[in-house]
Amino acid sequence: MQARTHVTLEDVARAAEVSLATASRALNGTAPVRQHLRERVLRAAEELAYTPNAHARALAGATHRTVGVICHDVSDPYFAAVAGGIMRVAGDNGMLVMLASTFREPEREIAYVSMLRAERAAAILLIGSGFEDPDWERALDAELDPYLAGGGRVAVVSRHRSLKVDSVLPENRAGAAAMARSLLDLGHRRFAVLTGSQALTTVSDRFGGFRDELKKAGVRLRPADVVEAPFTRDGGYAAMSELLARGLDATCVFAVTDVMAIGALSALREHGLSVPDDVSVAGFDDIPIVRDLTPPLTTVALPLPQLGERAMELALTENPGRRRRIHRMAGEVVIRSSTRKVSP
């Protein structure tokens, strides 16, 4: 067959001797098509040099081809890395990703889920910590239950308590405990901890794992050793500044996320303190930038893009019994030059 201008889907269906609906499904992947029919349609499309109308295809297939991704803050490198993994798998499967940031506002998250339900998105992925809030849990369940009952797919990253859906769980508690052991092995016995709000499950897990491991070694954190601030770079800067203002009494500062650790490094530098000569600093996540800091940051490395990839794969995989599938991913302590050995 010769290539023609303005080749339509009807031309492809006619050449393949199939119905228009079968041709559309074979080309757009919106529903299963028998293999021999799909091959016939693809061969006809290739011979006719058929180019689908991308806008029309998006409109026609929006119900089946759109994935909604809701995270706390896409400007945070942690969420950007996880979202990147989601987008790779979604792109490989011909799906469009809609990305929204809640800025850690529970009500906004519920509103976004409601919007995605109305848009009939094929899947909804929630990235980041849940909230220790029964009212929020009930409201979110009220949105997700009918969506799931109608055939929607939901997968989450780092939310083990609140939602009974497919989950990818970084080992936050175990990773923080491993970090505590590594810092103890370096000789540290006086610590300060920078945390986000402990209403966030990720924060409570990381802080709890770190604190409990220190306690096993006979090292206790006093209330004054722990400063809570926003889960951001500026939050880390403010928390570190507060510790410095009242007199830092620690040889090592552990921030429960790398972005807080970056803020802490900036505050220490502005106060004329050297890391690690005056105080060691460690974080959690291993976002890409921390390897290029001066000094590079000791941290718990999580496979961030793989968290997103696995969540997207769960959302794409049939789960007829709707039994909750949980995929755990471990972190690894990476010692860099922001920490040093000290005499106990």
From TrEMBL:
One of its GO terms (molecular function) is transcription cis-regulatory region binding. PROSITE patterns: HTH_LACI_1, HTH_LACI_2. SUPFAM superfamilies: lambda repressor-like DNA-binding domains, Periplasmic binding protein-like I. SMART domains: HTH_LACI. Pfam families: LacI, Peripla_BP_3. The keyword Nucleotide-binding does not apply. Keywords: DNA-binding, Transcription, Transcription regulation. Coiled coil: none annotated. Residues 7-61 form the HTH lacI-type domain. This is LacI family transcriptional regulator. It comes from Planosporangium mesophilum.
